Structures are given as structure tokens and as C-alpha cells.
Amino acid sequence: MDLTIPESTTQVAADGRRNLKDLTPQGMEAWLAEQGEPAFRRRQIFQWLYQRRVKDFDAMTDVSKGLRTKLAEHFHLGWMECESAHSSKDGSTKYIFAMGDGRRVETVLMPNNTHYTLCVSTQVGCAMGCAFCMTGRMGLVRNLSAGEIVQQVVGSYADVPEGNIIRNIVFMGMGEPLHNYDNLVSALRILSDDYGFGFSWRRLTVSTSGLVPALKRFGQEDIRANMAISLNGVTDEMRTKVMPVNKRWNLAALLDACRSFPMENRERITFEYVLLKGVTDELASAKKLVKLLHGIKCKVNLIPFNPWPGSPFDGPTMAHARAFQEVLHSKGVIATLRISKGQDIQAACGQLITEKPTRPAAVAAG
Q1: pLDDT tens digit string along 17-64?
Q2: Which of 15, 39, 61, 267 has the fewest CB atoms within 10 Å, i.e. is most exposed?
Q3: Long-range CB contacts (< 8 A, 24+ apart) of 159-163?
Q4: Phi and psi of 49, rounded to 5°?
Q5: What's the pLDDT at 343?
Q6: 175, 126 Cβ separation under 8 angstroms
Q7: Burial readout 335-353 (b: 16 or more C-beta within 10 A, e: otherwise)
Q8: According to CATH, what is the number of the domain 81-345?
Q9: Catalytic residue numbers, as ranges
Q10: Domain made up of 18-76: CATH architecture
């Protein structure tokens, strides 16, 4: 497993034009200054890109024709074709977006009363190789650029009814977000910009399998997001069986990084814990989990395993999952039980895949 952070990706068309959505607010301002354009043009352009979601430079009617011409000469708008959309009986929609090089990613839009949560991808495939995750069987194909990450939000808005909004963005789709560090941070800057989508950091959640150096680095950034740590084991032996990343950064290293992660008074780290029948779901493991997380401001999100074709694992019964949850509650640990949406369309946690697997399915570890 190669955990070297890949170089930053920039989406460049065959004619040499760059993806305009790859530019952060600061990057846009710098380019405009080079062109001798006033700073307020950045506000106009971002509003057209992310609030009005235009598909053509000529639609930017309050931007001068000269600037529109310059933009069209240097950039494209980064639109990705929606190759297909699959609807779940629970109201969720899984999109397959095709990019300029023919690679594809999956994005999941999930309804909740008058608003939506969008699960976005950060990579095509994933290098982490977690045994319970279908995406990991692809291996890592490539990073997404910041513009490709953000375009998933732009493209998904087509199915959001008028009067509704995408309220939450979770970086829990294909890929390990912190393995695509620079593009993740750039995408967060765009999503949280007042003239972009204006998301509060409290509405942005980054999930990671535990790349400790990147986690520490992210804690020092001037951009913020909620952190969700994929734990899935209460001993190094157990966690290594299902998450190879634990060989590089074990539980002690990961939890030390979590204890030192800077947080506001009411902020908590979320620990995601996949319940694999006979592997991670023993009630004794719940008691060990309480001890493991002692002293960390956190909550636990329990995720009953979502099966996929060829998987060697099973999920627990709902009664057993609730019993596991109750052990945590009885010890004062905040614990939620996630009922994953989109399972009937292979859109739930761990079920996303767009290319033929290059790795065999793991063997269940008891």
C-alpha cells in the first residue's frame, strides 16, 4: 500500500485550458490581478459559478465581454457529464459523473425533510485497501482536482427541488480525502467562501482512515471542517486485519493525534465504527472501545456493515447493533446508529465502485 500523498491534480483540457473551478478565492484574485482586472470581479465570477451554476461564460451578463473572452481563452467551466442517476426507494440518488479523461466517480444525494446531504468523492478508487470497502478493491486510479470535487456539488443541485438546499457536505465517497490533501483543502475553501456556496465549516465533514501526519497538518490549517475518524477496531490486531493503514499508524499514534487535534469547546471528533459480524461487533469490543476513547471529546457513529457482491463479511442483526450501542450509552459515550441510505442501489457506505476491481476481496477475519 503506497501512502505517499500524490501530487496535486489540475484538470487541463486538450486545448490547454484549465478548469476554472480549480481556482480558490485567492487563486482567482491572483489571476484577475495579473489581467489588470478589479478585485470585485472575483465575487461576480464565483456567484455565477456556484450560486447560479452557469454552463457558459456568456451567461455571466454583468461581467465585461473582454473579461469573458479572457476567461474562455484560459479556462473551461469543469462540467462533468452525469452518465447515470440511480434512485433508491429511500429517496437517495446515486450519480455517476464522467470526467474529461473518461474516468468516473460516484456521488450520493440524500434527502432529509427540507434539506439534503451530499456525499462527495475525492479520488477515483482508493489506496487504503480497507477489507470492508468495495472502493478499495479498485486501488487508487487518480486524485480528483479541487474543481472536480466541487463540480459534484454543482451537478447534484439539478435534482434539488426549489425551496430546498444541500445543507451538509460529507467527504465520505470514493477515496481517502487526506490522501488528496491539497485538492481537499482547496475544495473546502471554495465551498465555504461567502460568494461560493457559503457553507459553514460545521456543515462540512471530512472522513479519514487515519493518515496521522496529514491529520496533524489539517489541524493547523486556517480552514476547518468536522473530523470523522474511521476506527473499526479496538486492538491493533483487529484493526490491522480490516484496515491495512494501521500497520503504518497504529491505534496509539492515531488516538494521540486525535487528542491533540485543536477543537472548539463544543466540538467533538466523530469515530466511525463499522460493525462486522463476528469480527468487530462483540459486546466485549464495545467495552474496550469505551476505554480506548477515554479522555477524547468525541462521539461514536456505529455503521452496520453494508454488504456488496463477493464480500466475505456480514452485518449484525439490528438488535445486536442496538445492544452494542447500549453498552456505549451505559458508559456515558454518545453513540449513534447509522442506517445507511441507498443500500438498494449500492450507494451506501463502502459500496461505491466505478471500475473493475484490481484487488481480490478480503478474507473474513474472525
Answers
A1: 999 999 999 999 999 999 999 999 999 999 999 999 999 999 999 999
A2: 15
A3: 159/85, 159/93, 159/109, 160/109, 160/116, 163/114
A4: -70, -45
A5: 58
A6: yes
A7: beebebbbbebbbbbbbbb
A8: 3.20.20.70
A9: 106, 349
A10: Orthogonal Bundle (1.10)
